[in-house]
Amino acid sequence: MRVWQFSEMPYTPAWGLDTESLRVTLPNSNYDPKLGAEIYRRQFENYLLADDLGFDLMSNEHHSTATCLQASTSVILSSLARSTTNARLLSLGNPIANRPDPVRVAEEMAMIDNISGGRLEVGLIRGTPAELSSVNANPARMVDRFWEAHDLILKAWTSHDGPFNWEGEFFQHRQVNIWPTPFQQPTPPVWVTVGSASTARRVADEGHVIATLLGGYSSRSTFDAYRARTLELGRPYPKSDRFGYLALVSVGATDEAGLERARLMQPHLDVSLLMPQQFLNPPGYAPVEANVAALKRGAKGSLSTHQQVGSGEGKDVMLGKKLPSLASVKRSMDQGLLFAGSPDSVLQQITDFSRAMGGIGHLLMLGHAGYMSFDDVADNIKLFGNEVLPALRELPEVDEAELAAERDELRRTVP
Amino acid sequence: MFLDPQDYILSRMSLTHEKSAASLSVRDIDVHGVTTELYEGGSGTPILYLHAGEGLRPSAPILGLLASAGHLLAPIHPGFGVKPRPPSFSTIGDLAYFYLDLLDQLELDKVAVVAADFGGWIAAELAVRSTARLSHLVLAGPTGIKCGDREDRDIADMFALGRAELIELMYADPAVSQVGESSLREDFDGLSDDALTSIARSRESMAVFGWSPYMHNPRLRQWLHRIDIPTLVLWGARDRFTLPEYGASFAAAIPAARFEVLEAAGHYPHIEQPERFVEVVANFLEIKSSSVVTGRPS
């Protein structure tokens, strides 16, 4: 299993200023550039530490939010491409349904792939509802736009005979001929984040890696949809390297210390979705049928496009006046959103979770979240890197004997 | 003012029942391969009613009242009802041409177009293309043009506002926002799945047609001079979603347009003051028939 260290680079000093929204509407007067610059400096230090310890590194992208200072995955990864030496670098990802310029995405990613000497992995993602406002992207028809952008990027990477023409529904070009081409041929590995079985099937058609983010145990059905579709296509049973999963990870010297550290991280789950309903459910983002169901629940009902996460311990947690209880930490662990404890415990939890998923090849590790200090993060990364990562790297991709029955069952369901 | 929505519903139900609700029929109509539902009733002057962006409200009194004033044709915009949006429809022009085709297909002449909100935008786009089959145009709180500077917001950002904020901006009487097939109800008890589907699909289609540029066509205003038929621009005095000043600018761009403000109404004067609305419209259309509803029992 590969492990990808990741931080959203939260700007926690602004957390709690608005218990209704940390996204879209929180004025940037609450951002202090001097403090922000220091946050970036410490974040890159921890990225380099993780590189030294044998982690791979992940970046993402969010906008207009105090939850994440990674406003451009290209900027973060182009810096890491120069300053790291060993780690593979994952963008998860480029919100291509929100970008007006997929060809530019293809160029930027090709550049980073060259600069890093072929260490780049490219996630192409739809993006969360709150991301639409910052670029004025239309939530309606996003999925169609996503796949047209995807097709254009793939074609831009793999066409080498001079300019090609693209007059699609959403994107128009007459001279596509990118320089540089990707270092890895024909393309860097491509990832897509997935939250539903239908999308998983579509991604299986492409053979890309799929990842679920904080999807918990329900991720299994998503992964199985990918596996089933792959078999339908007459291809070999997909290896675990096609599957990634993102969770919070907290390691301590003892179980108690790991759980206590997790209390600092758990607020990530409480504040992540803090935004007014209209930004959580913009028109057309979710299908009409899902919105009909939400209307039936009335004004107080919400659209369940996201799993219910968080401690549910109310405003004091959101305001940072109080940390979530150990009970809510354990609830997140039960949901598969958080692995926490001593190195041995965490290793066991991850191994068990992978087993429950039918085998995952990539752990996307939120080793920094919530109110952790940078020293906490460094300690977390060191403990994991020294005492958990070596064992995970040696983990057999899939336990053939143990999973054989489940695989056979899945095969039986495929025509 | 009705403090209790139920009183409002009852008062409206008795009125529509008395006048005309029974005379409305609904059928599917196919226009060049695009099927939508058409509500129809009454006789006399053909009136094409183009509903607001929230969707057609089949139970709204306005339909029956208009059917008592003329031959009402109230189609559901493609993509605003139970049927899926035609995949090839993505601009306001698609809707304008759809309705020009519909008028051709039904061979209707001297049609009065009565349109509200987003429907008013469609009507204006339709009329700058051709008024050949039209006699009059009534635009009630239309969107569709840009008047202010680039940093002015002529039309409130419906996609960035919460329900309570929208009710405040759109209604003179908030209680009215809680009745019928209103999209801003606190709860939707008693509405059919079809009604809920129409509300949800309308919201999505508003994004398709009006996300960006937001609820307007930057090119429309310069062509409004082509509207060469008598036009009435109606505005709710308490409309804060689109201010009356915006309406006055809209009217000023159309040569034969009159601008009129209805008291005690917000962005939906056809919903909040349906009797007064139809009375004003009937006067404008010079419909003299005694059957025109004025709110009095006949």
Structure description:
The complex is a heterodimer of chains A (415) and B (298). Chain A has 415 residues and is an alpha/beta fold. Helices cover 44% and strands 15% of the residues of chain A. With 298 residues, chain B is an alpha/beta fold. In chain B, 34% of the residues lie in helices and 17% in strands. In chain B, helix 2 packs parallel to helix 9. The chains are: A alpha/beta (415), B alpha/beta (298). Chain A binds chain B through residues 24, 133, 136, 138-141, 276-279, 282-284, 288, 291-292, 295-296, 298-299, and chain B through 90, 159-163, 185-189, 193, 196-197, 199-201, 203-208, 211-212.
Task: Please give a handful of descriptors for the protein shown.
heterodimer; A: 415 residues; alpha/beta; eight-stranded parallel barrel; two-stranded antiparallel sheet; 11 strands; 44% helix; globular; B: 298 residues; eight-stranded mixed beta sheet; 9 helices; 8 strands; disordered C terminus
Q: What is the residue-averaged pLDDT of chain B?
A: 91
Straight-line distance between termini of chain B? 24 Å
Major sheet of chain A: 8 strands, parallel, barrel
Given the structure, what is the number of helices of chain B? 9
Judged by helices, strands and strand pairing, the structural class of chain B is alpha/beta
Helix content of chain B: 25-40%
Largest interface: A-B, 21 and 25 residues
Low-confidence runs of chain A: none
Beta fraction of the residues of chain B?
15-25%
Rounded to the nearest angstrom, the radius of gyration of chain A is 21 Å
The general outline of chain B is globular
Major beta sheet of chain B, specifics? 8 strands, mixed
Indicate the overall shape of chain A. Answer: globular
Q: What strand line-up does the widest sheet of chain B have?
A: 1-2-4-3-5-6-7-8
Query: Using DSSP, what is the number of strands of chain A?
Result: 11
Helix proportion of chain A: 40-55%
